[in-house]
């Protein structure tokens, strides 16, 4: 008998052992799947931390216009997007690169810096691609448990770094728990780790972070081993277009660029990115992010009032640490037409949507899990 899932010797091709052993990436379920599964209508998706609002009309127009030129390859270096990002963020153009979503850039960091057997240190639970990408490059995952408040334990991360560590990756805010590194923590990490170790601050949710939390861009000048990754997928509402960016020392950026697939940031993505980064779009994007933050506060307060003890969140989602009840609660919410992202045995991540969507979630949760532990 052959086991095609793991790629036995008699199967078609012989996948690398590390690849055969990989779990498949589990994307959030879409509403159609859930509607069919439970025979319901009008399900809402709060599963993938997307922006609930459609893209700005100016972005749609720019992408449609760019479609007229699809017979040509795009600019491989996405020069105009880099230049615009450099201007917006206030760094040199050589300190910016763009990728096919920031997840691609995270993979490029590992492709560029990690040899087989090298260690990659990251807190856990965190973004699911970290263990997958590490295994893809045959690196060794060193997972550092979150603390009792579901936050990153920076001292434990520092202690986990050894002479074999090539990369440290920290999502701040952390996905799926929403907690952000407190001020000073990233600097402490950068100072404790030798400059020969790349430290990635994965800031996919930067735009939702409170103004009292420092901007790590200020740390770039003194810490050449820092790489900051951000994305246009979340606050900017372009998840389907696939544009992320990385900020770092020019030499590091140049190494990351070497492992990029040709034309990874396609022509439509570049056009959409330029449109959303236009000064005219900026105010509306900020307004939308602010609205999500105030909805997050409302949802958090409502959960708190209902007796839930959940971690402080600086992202566009909340984390319900349900433990063994996770699957039951997630299925109950699905039956009520609310699609969330369960992590078996740990908890449920719920994206902040529109006010109406959030009300539906709160009402459904009150039915499904009226008495949180
Ligand atoms: C969503 C997310 C990303 C990046 O998403 P892209 O769409 O690939 O840009 C990166 N890191 C974390 C922690 C995320 O949650």
Question: TL;DR of this structure?
Answer:
This protein is α/β, with parallel strands linked by helices. It contains 13 helices and 12 strands. It is globular and about 55 Å long.
Can you walk me through this structure?
By secondary structure, the protein is an alpha/beta fold. The chain has helices at residues 17-20, 31-38, 57-66, 79-89, 101-113, 129-136, 154-160, 185-192, 250-258, 267-276, 279-305, 326-335, 355-368, and strands at residues 44-45, 96-99, 119-124, 140-145, 165-171, 198-202, 226-231, 244-247, 317-320, 338-339, 341-343, 347-351. Helix 3 (57-66) runs antiparallel to helix 10 (267-276), helix 5 packs parallel to helix 6 (129-136) and helix 7 (154-160) runs parallel beside helix 8 (185-192). The radius of gyration is 21 Å and the shape is globular. The termini are far apart. The model has no long low-confidence stretch (mean pLDDT 95). It binds pyridoxal-5'-phosphate. Pyridoxal-5'-phosphate binds next to helix 5.
Which small-molecule species are bound to the chains here? pyridoxal-5'-phosphate
- Low-pLDDT runs: none
Name the helix and strand elements from N-terminus to C-terminus, one letter apiece. Answer: HHEHHEHEHEHEHEEEHHHEHEEEH
Taking the alpha carbons of the first and last residues, their distance comes to: 47 Å
Q: Could you report the average pLDDT, rounded to the nearest whole number?
A: 95
- In DSSP terms, counting alpha (H) and pi (I) runs of 4 or more, how many helices? 13
Taken as a percent bin, the fraction of beta residues is: 5-15%
